[in-house]
Amino acid sequence: xxxxxxxxxxxxxxxxxxxxxxxxxxxxxxxxxxxxxxxxxxxxxxxxxxxxxxxxxxxxxxxxxxxxxxxxxxxxxxxxxxxxxxxxxxxxxxxxxxxxxxxxxxxxxxxxxxxxxxxxxxxxxxxxxxxxxxxxxxxxxxxxxxxxxxxxxxxxxxxxxxxxxxxxxxxxxxxxxxxxxxxxxxxxxxxxxxxxxx
Length: 198
Description:
By secondary structure, this protein is an alpha+beta fold. The protein folds into 2 domains: 2-120, Diaminopimelate Epimerase, Chain A, domain 1 (Roll); 131-196, Arc Repressor Mutant, subunit A (Orthogonal Bundle). Helix content is 32%, strand content 29%. Strands 1, 2, 3, 4, 5, 6, 7 and 8 form an 8-stranded mixed β-sheet that branches.
């Protein structure tokens, strides 16, 4: 984890997510103290970092706070804002716990995909969603409202041919729903497949 501060009161970190090896995994820029920034300023910073994603945890709304949301996460690529992405969610929760800005245990993060409960280990360590669970959730949330057959999800997320069997998609959706509870944006379209309502 690399830390730096700017003259504007912003603090940022660059972390490698999904790895314990420096300069491996998925890189993430995380900017703290960005509540006052406009969308355009956040987008400009993401372009400047030029990583796959830059995350900005900001204060939740009063309504979100009343529901137990710890922070709202805005995620940007160098080109656009995303409603959800896996490694920024994991990386942000990990950094926030390491800094003592959120407690260990279950932390609720609000983002464009809804409110996501994440579990942070006592050492500030990994969030308890598997990489495949995040990839599936991310794939659906980046395409809100579109319905995907199980065969297509198996091909897009796992890289398997449909002949391998689609039961693994149902199992992962069930695991995500169990972990996310009422915040799960995944919707079943009977006889067709799954969609995300974000």
